[in-house]
Amino acid sequence: MTASSGVLQHVIINYRWVFVCFFLLPVSVLYDAWMYARNWIIFRLSSAPKNHDSKVRHIRMQVKRWRAQGMEVPMCTARPGWQTISFRQPKYKKTFCKIDINLVDILDIDMQRQVVRLEPMVTMGQLTATLNPLGWTLPIIPEMDDLTVGGLVMGTGVESSSHRYGLLQHICLSLEMVLSNGSVITCSKDENADLFYAAFWSYGTLGFLTAVEVRIVPAQPFVRLRYRPTTSRAELTALLSRECGGQHQFVETLLFDRDRAVVMTGDFVSSAEPDKVNAIGMWYKPWFFKHVEGFLERGQGCEYVPLRDYYHRHTRSIFWEIQDIIPFGNNAAFRWICGWMVPPKVSLLKLTQGQTIKELYEKNHFIQDMLVPLDKLDKALDVFHKEVKIYPMWLCPFVLPAHPGFLQPASGQRQMYIDIGAYGVPQARDFDAHKTSRRVEKFVMDIGGFQMMYADSFLTREEYRKMFDHRLYDKVRREYDCLRAFPEVYDKVNRAARD
Fold first, then answer.
1. I need a labelling partner for 411 at 20 to 30 A (CA). Which of 122, 273, 307, 476 fits?
2. Average pLDDT in the 357-379 region?
3. For the segment 450-472, what is each residue's pLDDT rounded down to a tens digit?
4. Contact at 8 Å (CB) between 117 and 138?
């Protein structure tokens, strides 16, 4: 490394906050305000349902035009790669036939059937802002505001209620898709079931998702949240295993070092003790993970969190990634003065990063969610401690039923898993992004686990097909004429396919 490059890296790492605070934060606020106003007006005027069919016709026309022009290259959505929540931008967008899909609306809320019908680009923030005031919610609400329904259906979504309901795919009732021949099809577990089950984790390689029906459940205005610190691995695994089988609505854990963690359990409640209400989503409040860490010293605690604040508790600090972007962001003065602008949009962070920042992240950053059987948690945490040593670490349990499709439980029947989320700068000695990831991937595959594919994956094609069951997917690809229309899912999600 030359002296000049070393200075440049120092400036970028230590002073990136200048660009973020003075440019990205104000732009993010304006973008959010525009989207909120637009969505509010559309829903109040009920214009989205009558526009949906015409938007789907526009997609069908584009697909038919692609066929008429000779089907020379596969298709993909025209959505820019920088707008996705994934750290990387896909290379295939540069050469594929791009299909414009502008499906951003909540179409219908059927309270009698307890179903909401959504277009795929509806975000979690948009959804909770609409449903929660009406007294309803999805059984599973992945916590980041900008996660989209389509991304969570075609990829995956997990949350602290997943120990009861599974992944987001397990609360989906039906999917509407435009196929490679330009036709529209609706699929569910009772209608076109093969396509329905194969679509999850398929990353848009079977057709274009245009609408989703998802279960909704009654909600209450508060979550009673209990914090219980643990000081040993044995205490943590015993408590977490016990709570996974309990009746709490929400269960999650933040692990702060090898032995110390805080296990959180939550339940819907209709009222709260006024002196115990904590609106953790307010701009002046400490970052949630810092608030949780305090219980390691204070001991057990219980408080009441407004529902929407709870759902998006990790949004303001992007879990804990914000501390590497704005190191002083949790300072009380900064929170009071500028906290209302936090966080910067992840998509804008990605759009404005230069080559140097990108290279630094590749070498010095680790962002992964690994899904491992709960009974292998202790061994898995040892591997993560040895290989990456990133804290805090997110532990989110979920139940995995033995449904057809990509994910098959290691036991062959309904089984409890846990999402290990490691995000940040590794402190492990001799960390190497490629070699370390390969060792972690191999361990996860060997114990019957899965890797979330939004992050960097170095699996070979053979390893990927071993980790994920492709039998139904391959069958559906042939039956629905997908081979020329869309790439295989591996060719969209492996590291070589992403910039």
1. 476
2. 86
3. 999 988 899 999 999 999 999 99
4. no
